[in-house]
From TrEMBL:
This is Orotidine 5'-phosphate decarboxylase. Pathway: Pyrimidine metabolism; UMP biosynthesis via de novo pathway; UMP from orotate: step 2/2. The keyword Lyase applies. Keywords: Decarboxylase, Lyase, Pyrimidine biosynthesis. Belongs to the OMP decarboxylase family. Type 2 subfamily. It comes from Streptomyces lasiicapitis. InterPro entries: Aldolase_TIM, OMPdecase_AS, OMPdecase_type-2, OMPdeCOase_dom, RibuloseP-bd_barrel.
């Protein structure tokens, strides 16, 4: 499929062929230690290379967490750049987890960094924060569209602290989280097989039936594994929208390393469990 096909179409194809799973690449210092690596640039490089080599041809989506690379400065960014290129070359989709959000004119620069096809860190999608107002994301929405990329907008996050912002109710009676979902539904209207503008909705949140999750776009669902949610929880949390869920597992897979076979088995097990849960829904 052409790299300039819309992200939503490329994502649907990837999940259908490789299985519905996003593996997060989060090189925590504690994971480097558990793998017998130092918490330095060589450790970061070895860890990242091992994950890419083990999983790039197997898993549908990867979500490198930028902070774990940024903390090593420019050499960390170089490791991230290489990983993004290698994952994409092997047919994986990359969601850059950088959670960017700023006034529109600055947002345009963040968008150029991650969503312009000629940028060194071009990624298939980017996580963004809408809490300077959804409209502030417009430059990213536009550039993503031009480049066949997508966004994942923080709507209902997996952490308990998120509720004080996301469940706050506006004058019109809708919560902030529901309002973000509404913006995304409008963005994705008419797109097939689904739109390119996704929401981040935690798998840890329990029954979400009071929210309209039918945004005709992907729902990135972190929280499986280390944060306590399981693939079997997904139908209860997401209801009919479960078919658009992209479940993310980071530590739950990464802790199986450094052995490549063990990493592949862990990812395959999560993908199978998700498939079974979704098919039964
Ligand atoms: O946007 C995200 O990826 C994200 C949103 C959210 O609500 N909760 C959440 O955990 N995440 C990210 O998802 C990953 C979860 O990692 P594990 O808990 O190790 O599976 C981390 O990279 C978090 O930054």
């Amino acid at each position: 499929m052409s790299p300039l096909e819309p992200f939503g179409a490329r994502l649907r194809h990837a999940m259908d062929t490789r299985g519905p799973l996003c593996v997060g690449i989060d090189p925590h210092a504690s994971l480097l230690a558990a793998w017998g690596l130092n918490d330095d640039i060589q450790g970061l490089e070895s860890f990242t290379r091992a994950v890419v080599d083990a999983l790039a041809d197997q898993v549908a989506v990867f979500k490198p967490q930028s902070a774990f690379f940024e903390r090593f400065g420019s050499r960390g960014i170089a490791v991230l750049e290489r990983a993004v290129a290698d994952l994409r070359a092997a047919g994986g989709l990359v969601v850059m987890d950088a959670k960017r959000g700023d006034i529109g004119s600055t947002m345009a620069a963040y968008a150029e960094t991650f969503l312009h096809k000629d940028a060194p860190l071009f990624s298939d999608a980017l996580t963004v924060s809408p809490y300077l107002g959804y409209g502030s994301l417009a430059p990213a929405v536009d550039l993503a569209r031009e480049n066949g990329a997508g966004l994942f907008v923080l709507a209902l996050t997996s952490n308990p602290e998120g509720a004080e912002v996301q469940r706050a109710v506006r004058e019109d009676g809708r919560s902030i989280g529901a309002t973000m979902l509404g913006h995304l539904a409008a963005e994705n209207a008419g797109a097939a097989p689904m739109g390119s503008y996704g929401a981040v909705v935690g798998a840890t949140l329990g029954d979400l039936s009071t929210f309209d999750l039918d945004i005709n776009g992907p729902l990135l669902a972190p929280g499986i594994g280390a944060q306590g949610a399981t693939p079997a929880d997904l139908p209860r949390v997401f209801g009919a929208a479960v078919r658009n869920v992209v479940p993310n597992v980071s530590r739950g897979v990464l802790k199986a390393g450094p052995d490549a076979g063990a990493l592949r088995d862990a990812a395959a097990r999560f993908a199978d469990e998700v498939r079974v849960a979704v098919d039964a829904a």
